[in-house]
């Protein structure tokens, strides 16, 4: 995890083609557990690319932007990150 100082967004680096939405929240430390991440998503508290997302296992790919609890997460391929 890194933080883009200009936009204050977390940069999530993918090591594979995609990752499930709840795992991003968990691995970036925004929730205490995967179960909590799933509940926050089910409650409609997460948006992906400007749309509320309620699918816990939504495949997140490079280029997606997630907003959760006022925090922005930009998803990039690990090889594309400096």
Describe the model.
- The chain has helices at residues 21-27, 34-42, and strands at residues 2-4, 9-14, 19-20, 46-48, 51-52, 59-60, 65-68, 71-77.
- By secondary structure, it is an alpha+beta fold.
- The protein has one domain (2-80): Structural Genomics Hypothetical 15.5 Kd Protein In mrcA-pckA Intergenic Region, Chain A.
- A 6-stranded mixed sheet has the order 1-2-8-7-4-5, with no helix packed on it.
- α1 packs across α2 (34-42).
- Mean pLDDT is 90; it is low at 1-6.
Strand content: 35-45%
CATH architecture: Roll
- Largest sheet: number of strands, sense, barrel closure: 6 strands, mixed
Fill in the CATH topology.
Answer: Structural Genomics Hypothetical 15.5 Kd Protein In mrcA-pckA Intergenic Region, Chain A
N/C terminus separation: 12 Å
* Structural class category: alpha+beta
DSSP E strands, number? 8
Q: What is the level 1 CATH name?
A: Alpha Beta
CATH superfamily: RNA-binding S4 domain
Count up the helices. Answer: 2
* Rg: 12 Å
